[in-house]
Design goal:
The structure holds two protein chains of two kinds. Chain A is of the alpha+beta class. Helices cover 26% and strands 24% of the residues of chain A. Chain A contains three helices and five strands, in the order βαβααβββ. Chain A has helices spanning 8-14, 30-38, 42-47, and strands at 2-6, 18-21, 55-58, 61-62, 74-78. In chain A, strands 2-1-5-3-4 form a five-stranded mixed beta sheet. The termini of chain A are far apart. By secondary structure, chain B is α+β, with helices and mostly antiparallel strands. Chain B has helices spanning 30-38, 72-89, 120-137, 157-164, and strands at residues 8-13, 18-24, 46-53, 57-58, 61-70, 92-100, 102-104, 109-117, 140-146, 149-152. In chain B, α3 (120-137) packs across α4 (157-164). The longest helix of chain B is centred in the middle third of the chain and has 18 residues, at 72-89. Chain B is globular. Classes of the chains: A alpha+beta, B alpha+beta. At the A-B interface, β4 of A face β5, α2, α3 and β9 of B.
């Protein structure tokens, strides 16, 4: 299973804060997971479009497109941070 | 998930520097925090502090209220990582980071960074570094209630530029 979590504007747009999904077939890294999520529908496709600058963390560490994703991982998606 | 209600404390200790990182809803008292941090350590010759505050106007709208959310498990890891990097770059004795979450109003304190060292140079530099990195790497998000409606605060390119200076 993958634990997917969403924050801030992205959480509101998707109407979802977290979910557990079986590791989708063919998903090996952040890039392929994002592609898989975009196929879920119009909102998903638009929110994960490259222009949205969605940031990703795998197991609490900032990730890149090539970062590996494996069974049991927590993958977080969120807009650029605005703390401080 | 209730990110607003989350409160945790993390104390990392090493022979070189003591570090405390806290995320909480309550306000902080800078004098009390500095007093605690300095307590019993005669090696400290300089303390640099930064306080971030809620402004009443942002992007041409009047801010009535702001709500801060975060990603608790990652926030702790990110803040500890930033402080760890500062410790490697400068000779510092003590660090405290307090970041508030939940609902805040204009003039409220949002974040406190305190760095203690033997001499001022390291304290000033490390304090600025920690704030710059915190603003671009720690998973906090601000949502503003303004006279033009409710909106998520957009990240600023100037914050990325500030963090880039340290590379």
């Amino acid at each position: 299973m993958l634990n997917l979590v969403y924050f801030a504007r992205l959480r509101e747009a998707l109407g979802l804060d977290s979910e557990e999904v079986p590791l989708p077939h063919g998903v090996q890294n952040v890039e392929s997971l994002t592609q898989w999520l975009r196929k879920r529908g119009k909102v998903w496709d638009s929110e994960f479009a490259p222009g949205k600058r969605v940031r990703v963390a795998v197991n609490l560490e900032i990730a890149e497109e090539a970062t590996r994703v494996a069974d049991g991982d927590e993958v977080a998606f969120f807009p650029p941070v605005t703390g401080g | 998930m209730l990110p607003m209600a989350t409160k945790w404390h993390s104390f990392h200790r090493s022979p070189e520097a003591e570090v405390a990182v806290r995320v909480e809803t309550e306000d902080f008292d800078i004098a009390a925090e500095v007093r605690t941090l300095r307590s019993g350590n005669p090696k400290i010759g300089a303390v640099a502090c930064f306080i971030g505050l809620v402004r009443d106007v942002n992007e041409n709208a009047t801010v009535a209220e702001m709500t801060l959310e975060h990603y608790p498990a990652m926030t702790r890891k990110a803040l500890n990582g930033i402080v760890e990097e500062a410790k490697q770059r400068w000779d510092i004795l003590d660090v405290l980071v307090v970041h508030r979450v939940g609902t805040l109003k204009p003039m409220d304190q949002i974040v406190l960074v305190v760095v203690a060292s033997a001499h001022r140079g390291a304290a000033f530099a490390a304090c600025e570094f920690i704030v710059d990195y915190l603003k671009t790497r720690a998973p906090f998000w601000k949502k503003e209630q303004t006279n033009k409606g409710t909106r998520w605060v957009e990240a600023r390119d100037s914050d990325d530029d500030a963090a880039q200076r340290w590379n």
